[in-house]
Amino acid sequence: MTAPALALVLAASVIHCGWNALAKHGRDQLMFLWSSVTLAAFLFLPAGLSRLPRGGVPGMVVPYVAATIALHAFYFYALGRAYGAGDFSFVYPIARGLGVALVPLLAFTLRDERLSPPGALGVALVAASVVGISRAPRPLGRVRPVQLGAGAFWALATGFSIAGYSLVDKAGVGRLDPVAYLAIMGLGTSAVLVPVILANRDALRLEWTMNGRAILVSATMNLTSYLLVLFAFRLSKTAYVVAARETSIIFSLIVGRVWFGEGALGLRLVAAAMILAGVACVAAAR
C-alpha cells in the first residue's frame, strides 16, 4: 500500500470515528444520521455537478451508482438502529471490522484481487483483533439484553453493507470522478430514506432542536471522510484500503471510554495494538 493511500485512509479514519461518535450522542440516531448525510450531500452537490462529464452520468456507471445508493441507505438505517441499541465501543468495532473479513473474500471471488502474503497477514490480524474487541468483557452493570440482541444484529448488518458498498465503490470510482460519484451517492441515499424519516417528523424536528449544531459539524465530516476513501481506492487494492480504515477502531475505544463511560479499555487496547500491527503489514504490502 502506497504512502499517499495510507495517509488518506488514516485521515478518513479519524474523521469517521468523530462523526460516528456525534451520531451516537444524538437523541434519535437515525434522524441524526439522515440529517447529517442530507446536508453534506447538498454541500457536495455543486462540486459534484461541476465534475460530471459533459454528457452527464455515463451509462456504464449507472448500475454502480444505483447499487451504492441502495447499500448506503441500508447502511445508515442499520447503523442508526445499532447505535440506538448498543454501546459505541461495542457496535463500532463489529460494524467496521466485519468488512475486513468479508471484503477480501468477496474481492477474490468477484474481482480476482489476490493478496500478497504481508497483505493477507495484515488483514488476518485486523480481523482477529475485531473479534477480540467485540468479545472483551464489559462492566456487569452495563450489559443489557438489547445490547446482545438488537445491538449485535444491526452491527452485523451494518458490517455486511460496508463490505457490499466497498466493492461496488471500488469499481464505480474507476469509471466516474470520486467527487461526482460521492455527490450523487449522498443525494440518492438521502432520497431513498425520506419515507422512513417522514414517518416520524416529530423526532426529526426534535433532533434538530436539540442537536442542530452537532448535525452541522457531522455533515462537514461525514461525506468528507468517505471522499478520502474513494480517492484511496484509486491508489490501492480494495482489501488493503478497507483494512487500513480499521484504525478508527482504536479511536472508538478511547471515545467510548472517555465520552460515553463504557467500561475499562483492558483487552480492547491489546486488540487495538494488533490492529496497528495489521495496518503495518498492509502498508508494507505491494
Write the layout of secondary structure elements.
Layout: H1 3-25, H2 29-50, H3 62-85, H4 88-111, H5 117-135, H6 145-172, H7 178-198, H8 201-233, H9 238-245, H10 248-258, H11 267-284
Helix pairs in contact: 1-8, 1-10, 2-3, 2-7, 2-8, 3-6, 3-7, 4-5, 4-6, 4-9, 4-10, 5-11, 7-8
What's this entry about, in short?
The chain is built from 11 helices and no strands.
Q: Between the first and last Cα atoms, what is the distance in angstroms?
A: 6 Å
Question: How much helical structure, as a percent, in the residues?
Answer: over 70%
Q: Describe the main β-sheet briefly.
A: none
What's the pLDDT, averaged over the residues? 84
Query: How large is the share of residues in beta strands?
Result: under 5%
Number of domains: 1
Give the low-confidence spans: 140-148
Q: Roughly how many Å is the radius of gyration?
A: 18 Å
Helix-strand makeup class = mainly alpha
Q: What would you say this structure looks like, in words?
A:
The protein has eleven helices and no strands. The chain has 286 residues and is mainly α. It has one domain. It starts with a helix and ends with a helix.
Sum up the structure in keywords:
mainly alpha; 286 residues; globular
